[in-house]
Specification:
The structure holds 2 protein chains of 2 kinds.
Chain A lengths: L1 H27 L6 H6 L5 H10 L3 E13 L6 E5 L3 E7 L2 E6 L5 H10 L3 E5 L10 E3 L6 E4 L5 E8 L2 H13 L12 H34 L3 H16 L2 H15 L17 H27 L2 H8 L4 H24 L8 H7 L4 H10 L3 H29 L1 H5 L4
Parallel strand pairs in A: 2-4
Antiparallel strand pairs in A: 1-5, 1-8, 2-7, 3-4, 6-8
Helix pairs in contact in A: 1-14, 6-7, 6-9, 7-9, 8-12, 9-11, 10-11, 11-14, 12-13, 13-14
Chain B lengths: L1 H18 L9 H4 L5 H37 L1 H15 L3 H11 L4 H27 L3 H8 L4 H38 L9 H10 L9 H25 L1
Helix pairs in contact in B: 1-3, 1-10, 3-4, 3-6, 3-8, 3-9, 3-10, 4-6, 5-6, 6-8, 7-8, 8-9, 8-10, 9-10
Chain lengths: 409, 242
């Protein structure tokens, strides 16, 4: 038993690491493109770039005005500084290029630079450079062209390696320290407040969908005409985009008839979000109905039901004593595995109805290029999924004796 | 079945005509406001839907089949690693992961199909894995193996033909998922940019208040085009089942 629990915990931890790896690759590594350019929308503003780099964990800290640099030359000459090579100054093709290796201390660097008659460099008060710091006039890899006789501030930053970044962000997520969003608000508070709002719409909708779909599937069973009509309705309704329903229902009931408020989250009062719940139910009930029907049809063909019928047991008793206890396991597992995704709410519904839930937070995070927020929401949903998966296994074990005998936990 | 093939053929023909450049759509302010022809946009939407659906479904099938076969055939550490990857992906809601990957790739048509393909392979992998576990103990596969056939040859000549019905159904399902995902992604701003697509049409209709202005054409045309394709594909699946 303890061995099994440990095994399950290790596999859950492995999945958490896997989820984090996916998020790291998608949002924090340059696999799909420069994450800083994505966050800043390719801005050249050094403060913006540095703050994005810090938020993404690419640099530990940055001092924008570590030392001053002035180049003395004719105005027609151009100086190009690159971050990686930063030591010597030479002329080529009419351009003066400064190539410099990063020295151990800022003092050494400034002394080296001052050896060149064309450069004046001074350290700002109270700044000391360590050997792991790097000097950047602009952000990583970029070049900067210096005009003559103009003072520049050189920044010194402390870069963080990829494995270190991966480990840092994993430990911060595991300790539920999600940091701040783009507007410097703590993400944990946002997740909590908005998650509850999404849940207030998603949870009742889900249970109505679940019970409604089950009742529809039960009524359709054995009634060919009703079953055919419901199937046709399900396929037709599933074919049309959910956006169409949301547009039309909102336009009719909110704009034209004014039965519901335009912004249903002034105060959390139930009548205000009845309309979003109804839309969610209408869109979501059809696939659930088809699933329930297949569950019921599949079990109705099983030998134990046929044996019960052969013994002359009545239909009501077959349903109550034989079919429903058999359906309870897979159905409760289905519910348990879908519950974590409810905290997300509906991306489309929350966007269109302006409901400040987690769904709209995802959309806002994408529009504001806020990777931290996206990472935090995804991580919380994945954790909820793992917890509910464990709960689903326990529920399945309770209802299905075969799982108990197989030694599942 | 015959009717669904006819409709599918119609969609492909419209998409090919749109791809050939015979139906030009200029992306400008008039386009976003729905002042250019809705039918031209819908034709280009068919092209985009077919490109996204087919590439995303093919990507999912390719990755899922290869990984499913490898994990079932070799087992051991490789299978554990592939299972870990699949479970990690499955722990994140599909549409959220598609959204994140598409955002990470910077949006656009290629981002949509790659992100859908990278997320959808898990379902294919599970089916192929289970099926290959059954097939590898069957007589024809064991005979080929004992005759010294190489693993790629066994996979292509002896296992792939048995997987065809599953893969065909999965292709259609993932095709449908990709086209629907495009609608959601385009509406949320990380889908197709600077191109006409059904999702783009719905997004623009919302952004420019088509319903409030009493202009229903763009929404209805985009929705019906999408619904027509979905119904055609669904009837294709049911036709195959029968």
């Amino acid at each position: 038993m303890i061995k099994q629990i440990c095994k399950n915990l290790i596999s859950a931890l492995a999945i958490i690491v896997g989820v984090h790896l996916i998020l790291f690759i998608a949002l924090q590594s340059p696999t799909f493109g420069d994450p800083i350019a994505r966050e800043t929308q390719s801005s050249n503003d050094r403060a913006l770039l540095a703050s994005a780099a810090q938020r993404l964990g690419l640099i530990a800290d940055i001092n924008f005005a570590a030392f001053n640099l002035t180049v003395h030359a004719n105005e027609s000459e151009t100086f190009i500084l690159t971050m990686d090579s930063f030591f010597r100054l030479h002329h080529s093709n009419g351009q003066a290029i400064i190539e410099t290796a990063v020295p151990a201390t800022l003092g050494e660097l400034v002394a080296d630079l001052n050896n060149n008659p064309l450069i004046t460099a001074t350290i700002n008060d109270g700044f000391a450079m360590t050997s792991s710091d790097e000097i950047a006039l602009v952000y990583f890899g970029n070049k900067v062209t210096l005009s003559a006789e103009q003072p520049y501030h050189a920044a010194v930053l402390h870069p963080v390696s990829s494995p270190q970044r991966f480990f840092n962000s994993l430990t911060s997520l595991l300790s539920f320290d999600f940091g701040n969003d783009r507007n410097s608000r703590p993400i944990s508070n946002t997740l909590w407040q908005r998650g509850l709002r999404s849940l207030a719409i998603a949870a009742p909708s889900f249970f109505i969908i679940f019970i409604g779909a089950f009742l529809l599937a039960v009524s359709a069973h054995g009634r060919k005409r009703l079953s055919r009509n419901l199937n046709a309705a399900a396929i037709l309704c599933m074919s049309l985009p959910a956006l169409l329903y949301i547009f039309i229902i909102r336009q009719t009931f909110v704009i034209n008839l004014e039965w519901a408020p335009l912004r249903p989250y002034g105060d959390p009062v139930l009548p205000l979000f009845i309309l979003p719940i109804l839309i969610t139910v209408f869109v979501g009930i059809w696939p659930e109905y088809l699933l329930m029907r297949s569950f019921i049809d599949h079990r109705m063909r099983k030998p134990f039901i046929q044996a019960a019928r052969a013994q002359g047991i009545g239909e009501q008793r077959i349903w109550l004593r034989h079919l429903l206890p058999n359906l309870a396991g897979p159905l409760s597992q289905h519910v348990a595995l879908n519950l974590p995704f409810l905290v997300l709410g509906s991306l489309l519904l929350e966007t269109i109805f302006n409901i400040p839930g987690l769904g709209i937070s995802i959309v806002e995070a994408i529009q504001n290029h806020d990777s931290n927020m996206l990472r935090a929401i995804t991580f919380v949903v994945a954790i909820a999924f793992l917890v509910m998966q464990a709960a689903a296994t326990l529920v399945g074990r309770y209802f299905d004796p075969r799982q108990r005998s197989e030694g599942h936990i | 079945m015959r009717f669904s093939r006819l409709v599918a053929g119609l969609y492909i023909a419209v998409a090919l005509v749109a791809a050939s450049g015979a139906i030009p759509v200029e992306i400008n302010n008039d386009f976003y406001r729905g002042n250019t022809s809705v039918w031209q946009s819908a034709a280009h939407g068919a092209k985009v839907a077919l490109i996204i659906g087919s590439i995303a479904a093919s990507t999912a099938l390719l990755i899922g089949s290869v990984l499913g076969f490898i994990s079932a055939w070799y087992g051991g550490l490789i299978a554990t690693i592939i299972l870990w990857m699949a479970t990690s992906i499955a722990a994140i809601p599909g549409i959220l992961l598609v959204l994140i990957l598409s955002y990470g790739m910077g949006g656009g048509i290629s981002a949509v199909f790659f992100s859908v393909g990278l997320v959808s392979w898990v379902g294919v992998y599970r089916l192929v894995h289970a099926e290959v576990l059954n097939l590898r103990n069957q007589g024809h596969v064991e005979s080929a193996s004992s005759l010294g056939a190489s693993v790629p040859l066994i996979a292509i000549r002896h296992i792939l033909p048995c997987l065809k019905p599953i893969l065909a159904a999965q292709f259609v399902l993932h095709f449908m998922y990709a086209v629907k995902a495009e609608t959601v992604l385009s509406f949320l701003g990380v889908g197709v940019h600077q191109q006409a697509s059904w999702g783009r049409m719905l997004a623009d209709a919302w952004a420019f208040g088509d319903l409030s202005n009493g202009n229903y054409t763009r929404i209805i045309v985009a929705s019906l085009c999408l619904a027509g394709l979905m119904l055609t594909l669904q009837s294709h699946i049911y036709g195959r089942q029968k």
